């Protein structure tokens, strides 16, 4: 292959644009830090859900973590919008998606 052939292939780009995109490592560092933070937060939630035993009532599992009983039903006479979330996570970690 001659020097002229190499120059002509470099001048013509692919019709779909560059086939490989490379970004500098400095730009990926911030993304990686955010991804690690999300991973740690998700791990903490999953670890906590695995630590508690799901309450058979379907709510109240959060009390095992030392939190107070939900006051929303007493104050507003309607169920709390997030009642049962800790119990739901505890069931999901155990693979029991339809329980509770």
What low-confidence regions span 5 or more consecutive residues with pLDDT below 50? Answer: 5-9
| Structure annotation, total helices | 4
Describe the global form: elongated
What is the N-to-C order of secondary-structure elements (H for helix, E for strand)? HHHH
Number of strands: 0
Our estimate of the beta-strand percent is: under 5%
Question: What is the percent of helical residues?
Answer: 40-55%
Residue-averaged pLDDT:
79
Largest sheet: none
Structural class: mainly alpha
Specify Rg, calculated over alpha carbons. 27 Å
Terminus-to-terminus distance: 71 Å
Output the keywords.
elongated, 4 helices, 100 residues, mainly alpha
Tell me about this structure.
- There is one protein chain.
- By secondary structure, the protein is an all-alpha fold.
- It has helices at residues 3-11, 25-51, 72-76, 85-93.
- The longest helix has 27 residues, at 25-51.
- The radius of gyration is 27 Å and the shape is elongated.
- The model is unreliable at 5-9 (pLDDT under 50).
Strand-helix topology:
Blueprint: H1 3-11, H2 25-51, H3 72-76, H4 85-93
Helix pairs in contact: 2-4
Summarize the structure.
By secondary structure, the chain is mostly helical. 50% of the residues lie in helices and 0% in strands.
């Amino acid at each position: 292959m001659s020097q002229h052939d190499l120059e002509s292939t470099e001048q013509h780009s692919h019709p779909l644009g560059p086939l490989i995109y490379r970004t500098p490592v400095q730009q990926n560092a911030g993304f990686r830090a955010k991804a690690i933070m999300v991973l740690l937060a998700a791990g903490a939630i999953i670890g906590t859900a695995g630590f508690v035993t799901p309450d058979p009532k379907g709510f109240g599992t959060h009390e095992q973590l030392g939190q107070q009983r939900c006051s929303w039903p007493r104050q507003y006479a309607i169920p709390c919008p997030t009642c049962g979330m800790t119990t739901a996570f505890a069931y999901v970690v155990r693979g029991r998606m339809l329980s509770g």
